[in-house]
Amino acid sequence: MADPLEALFRHGRLVAIPRRGKLRRALLVRLAEEFEPGVLYTEKDVRERLAPIHDDHAALRRHLVDEGLLQRSRDGGTYGRPAESRGDASP
Fold first, then answer.
1. Structural contact between residues 23 and 4, judged by C-beta atoms closer than 8 angstroms
2. Which residue, among 54, 8, 11, 6, has the nearest Cα to 34 in the 3D structure?
3. Choosing a second label site near 56 at 20 to 30 A (CA), which of 24, 34, 44, 82?
């Protein structure tokens, strides 16, 4: 069975972003894997990881934050994967 996410890519670049649903969530989870758990990234770092995937890297960043797959620091200077994405969330 083919991976349904593969239909969203051409030559390694994302060509379609689903508006909602399971496919969108699966895509964003896959994109979040571009970021190592426990590492803080500057906005430039995030851009450098997402720009090769899709021209609208800012939209991808916003979607990742909106879905809780990346967290933005209060001052907006850094991004990182939340603890629950790393599997070490505390009660």
1. yes
2. 54
3. 82
d(CA 32, CA 19): 17
The pLDDT assigned to 30 comes to 96
Cα-based torsion angle of the residue sequence 65, 22, 60, 1 in order, rounded to the nearest 10 degrees: 140
Two structure tokens written together for 42: 């500057």
In 1-91, where does DSSP find H-type helix? 22-32, 43-50, 57-66, 83-86
Cα 9 to Cα 52: distance, rounded to the nearest angstrom: 12
Alpha carbon distance 6, 85 (integer Å): 23
Residue range 29-52: mean pLDDT, rounded: 96
Q: Which helix (H) or strand (E) holds 52?
A: none
